[in-house]
Amino acid sequence: MKKFALIWPKSTSMEFINYHCVQFIEIFDYLDTRFNNQIIPIDCDLDNLSLNELLKKVVMYDLVGVVMRVNPENVSQSIRTCEILKQVFPSIKIMAYGDLPILLPELFLKYPIDAIHSDGDSELSIESFLHYCNNNEEEKLLGIKLIKNGCLIDTNAGGILDPEYWGFAQLDNPLTKKYCAARQKNRIAVSISRDCPFKCKHCLVYTTQGARERKRGIDSLVQYLRSVYPKYSKIKLWSANFTYDTQYAYEFCNKFIENFPNITWDVTTRVDLLKNKELLKLMYKAGCRQIGVGVESISEIEINYAHKQFSLEQLRQSIMLVQSVGIKFKPLIMLGIPSQTKNSIIATIKYLTECGISIYDIRPSMYTPYYLMDKNMSLPEIENFNRSFYYTALPDVSFKQLLQIQYCVEKYKEILVQ
Questions:
Q1: Range(s) of the domain holding residue 344
Q2: Quick check: 206 pLDDT over 70?
Q3: Which of 191, 196, 267, 335 is a plausible cystine mate for 240, CB 3.0–4.6 Å?
Q4: Residues 151-188, buried b or exposed e (16+ Cβ, 10 A)?
C-alpha cells in the first residue's frame, strides 16, 4: 500500500513540546480518519530521532508523499531530510507546512520541496496535497503554492476548517502517551481556539493563523475528555486568550463543573483580559489552577515595544485578582527586548516576586523578532530565530547572562551583577 509520512524534523530546541501535540498530533488525527491508516506520523523531537533513525522508519515503505512541519528551529534538519528523501524516493512529492512556509515562502525555492502551505487551515491544505500525490489534480489544491521551475505558483485559496472537525490527541496513537509524559507533567494538551485578534508583532499566532478567534465546540471537547479521563486528569488547554470571549469561558466552566469535578487545567491569557473576578472564581471552581500571562516586562518602553496594552497598576490588580481566587499567576517574561537593560530585567523579576509570585513560576524566553527574517539568510541564521536562543544586542547584558537567567531565573541577581 502506498504511504504518506507526516514528519516533525528534529529541532535545535524542544522547549515548547505542547506545540507538537496541538500542531502535529491533532492534525494527524484529522488526516488519519480520511486516509485509512496510510499516514505514518514521525516526531523526531519527541523520539529524539537522528536523520538516520528517521530513514529507518520510512525506507521500507512505498512512500509517495511527505508533509513536513518546518519552523525556524528545525529548518536545517528539514531541508537535509528533504534532500535525502528525494534521493531515496525519486518520484516522491514533498510539502512543507508550519511557520516558515508562511513567513518566508521564497526560501523554499532553493530546496527540493514541491509545495508549501500558504493560507487557510493546514489540515485542509495537507489533505488536498495528499490527494494530489495520488492523482496530480492541481485544480483541487487548497491554500498551497506549488514550486515549479524556480517559481511559486498559486492554487485555490485556502479553506477554513469547522472547529467541530479539529482533531484530538487520541490515546490509541503511540505518540500521545509520549506527549503526555513529556516534562514529567503527565498531562494531555488540547487546543480550544485558533487565531488571535491582538497584533503583537513578535507573536506567530496572529501572523500564521489570523485575527478572527475561533473556538472548538464545548460539547465535542467534553466528549473527547470523557475518553481520556480519568487516565489523564491534568489538561493543558491551548488558547492564546482564554478570557477574551467571556461567554465561551462561562459556558466552558459550567460544563466542566458538571462533567469533570476532578480535572485540573491551565490556560493562557493577557493582563488586560483579567478583570472579571466572578469569571475567575468560576474558573477555579471548574478546575483551573494556573494562568500563564504574557507580562513580558514592567518597563513602559518595553511593554509598548512588545505591543502590550496594560499599565503597571493593571498588572498589579490582575495578579492580586488571580491569586485571590486560588489560581496560580504564571508570568511569561521576555529577555532581549530592544532597549532592555540590566536594571529593567531586575526590576521586572523583583516586582513579580514582591507580588507574591514564586521565582520558580516565572518563565523567561527570548524576544524573537521573526519579522526580521529574510529569504536570503542562511539556514543557520534562520535557525537563530528561536525563543530559546535568539539574542538582541543589549547595552549592558550579555548573551551569556540572558541564557543564564532563562535557565536559572532564581539566580538572576547574582547573574546580573557579574
A1: 187-416
A2: no
A3: 196
A4: eeeebbebbbbebeebbbbbeebebbbbbbebeeeebb
